[in-house]
Amino acid sequence: MTLKPPPAADAPAPRRTVLPILEARSLTKQYRMPGETVDAVRGVTLSVMPGEFVALMGPSGSGKSTLLQLLGGLDQPTAGEVLLEGEPIGRLSDSDATRLRRERTGFVFQSFNLVPLMNVVENVGLPFTISGQDPRSPELAGRIREAIALVDLTGKERHKPDQLSAGEQQRVAVARAIVTRPALLFADEPTGNLDFRTGLDILGALWRTCVERGQTIVLVTHDAKAAAYADRVFVVGDGQIQDEIVLGRREDHAAAPLITRLALLGL
Prior knowledge:
Elements: E1 22-33, E2 36-48, E3 53-57, H1 64-71, E4 79-84, E5 87-88, H2 94-104, E6 105-108, H3 120-124, H4 126-130, H5 138-150, H6 166-178, E7 184-188, H7 196-213, E8 216-221, H8 224-227, E9 232-237, E10 240-246, H9 256-264
Parallel strand pairs: 3-8, 3-9, 6-7, 7-8
Antiparallel strand pairs: 1-2, 1-4, 4-5, 9-10
């Protein structure tokens, strides 16, 4: 009998391939209007890696928000497919798709969508309540406290929305979106209703969730100053990806390099 020699002690470990957490393959979305068909998204292909902060940037009407809704499973494409963690979400039943959105994704919108009669703790814990879990249990209560601390709202746990500023209300919305520890966080113009300084605070909170917790973020914005927080920027126009700009992970969120690149592209 021939014995195989043992592997060398210093043999390199096999490389682990990191797959995209989110993929769009030839996404198209058409809306049929009286006498015409409008192409809101036209053949978009992109991928997002785990832990990335990605921005979809473009002017109003460029198709960026429609693209985010397709990526987040809030709308179905006319053609193409979206894969979340390798699973085509368009092939799921309505109930499975709803559960996937609830358990694996979080959303932050321009409007805060807080429940007026609930305080900060109750609003942040709402996803647990909706899913039939007790947000007062030790584990979930700890996660709620952690999310509130991450957005710098410790000390205001018992405040209701009308006792908070607009920026603080949006921070509550961010905490609510991340409390379930979703694989993906989608943010659609989250600073649109805020002043400049407060908007930077929200972007800082989102960036910290990415850096400190490895949270994957897809941000939709028309503002280069907001997009400058991202690792990569997809420039969206006429329903297509016109360019991809790699900024990299950095502490300095100055928008000048991005604005210069956009100017060179004539955008």
